[in-house]
Write a structure and sequence with these properties.
alpha/beta; seven-stranded mixed sheet; 6 helices; 26% strand; EC 1.8.1.9; redox-active center; FAD/NAD-binding_dom
């Protein structure tokens, strides 16, 4: 058999890099596979102000660079490949990629999750420049500004209420005429003095030169098109999208236990239902998806992978 790694990590975001660091420091032969850009979502994040200790040069790319440097220092290999097939039933796990086939005693699944995009003109171009998908990450950037929250589920309404700590006004824009959030959450939002609502409406386009300057709405009942411009003194406003996340877990469907939305179910030790396979980061069922929880997951997964190998493979 070809070279068998102690652990192969699928995903090079914060969870995968943290797992790689801990695994390599534990003297395990470690391979991190990333199909796109190392760092995941934070690689395109302008500022990571809520990561403990990240004060000087607190940008996403800088944080990723430091994580990668640590992984390299302790001997973890990082390669670019897209895994197309996995075989988890044997003691030695097999991962078939576009470039190579890999063998591992254990696997840490950390492919992350991606925000569901509306797909409207201007959305991608202005992401991080007024368009956001994370209130915890970016809410304070809009202190005393106006903010629109797109969505009507639990997360949209809860995040809208969180943003009221910073913004002077928050408007929830929902494509239906009533919210889908739990009634208890709705009641709090309806009573909140800073929150307004726009019903039966969706975004058609987001406009701006470097920053969000206006947004075009369409009323789905009347077909009326309206454009909201930034207050002249502000020059910009925030648009927070909460129309769902998509866990990148399709490869493991039918093999790993998942919830109805495709997030991997693990225990507190990151163990999945398959021995030797661990989940970490945004791809798993959890209450908070942030860099700080992702790196925690990765560290736990690596330590548990080491224990699994010690108990199941003879020297």
């Amino acid at each position: 058999m070809e070279n068998v790694y102690d652990v192969v990590i699928i995903g090079g975001g914060p969870a995968g890099l943290s797992a790689g660091l801990y695994a390599a420091r534990g003297k395990m032969t470690t391979l991190i596979l990333e199909k796109e850009k190392t760092g995941g979502q934070i690689a395109t994040t302008e500022e990571v102000a809520n990561y403990p200790g990240s004060i000087t040069d607190a940008t996403g790319p800088a944080l990723v660079a430091r994580m990668v440097e640590q992984c390299n220092e302790f001997g973890a290999k990082i390669e670019k490949d897209t895994i197309k097939e996995v075989k988890l039933e044997g003691k030695i796990k097999i991962l078939v990629g576009e470039k190579n086939t890999y063998h591992a005693k254990s696997i840490i699944v950390a492919p992350g999750a991606s925000p569901r995009l509306l797909g409207v003109p201007g959305e991608k171009e202005l992401t991080g420049k007024g368009v956001s998908y994370c209130a915890t990450c970016d809410g304070d950037f809009f202190t005393d500004f106006e903010v629109f929250v797109i969505g009507g589920g639990d997360s949209a309404v809860e995040e809208a209420m969180f943003i009221t700590k910073f913004a002077r006004k928050v408007t929830i824009v929902h494509r239906r005429e009533e919210l889908r959030a739990a009634k208890s959450i709705q009641e709090k939002a309806f009573k909140h003095p800073k929150i307004d609502f726009i019903w039966n409406t969706t975004i058609k386009e987001i406009k701006g030169d470097g920053l969000v300057e206006s947004v075009v709405f369409e009323n789905l009942k009347t077909g009326e098109i309206t454009e909201h411009h930034a207050d002249e003194e502000d020059g910009t406003f925030g648009i927070f999208m909460f129309v769902g996340y998509i866990p990148q877990t399709d490869l493991f469907k039918g093999m790993l236990d998942m919830d109805r939305t495709g997030y991997i179910v693990t225990d507190d030790n990151m163990k999945t239902n398959v021995p030797g396979v661990f989940g970490a980061g945004d791809c798993r069922v959890k209450s908070l998806r942030q860099v700080v929880t992702a790196v925690s997951d990765g560290a736990i997964a690596a330590v548990q992978a080491e224990k699994y190998i010690e108990n199941n493979f003879e020297e």
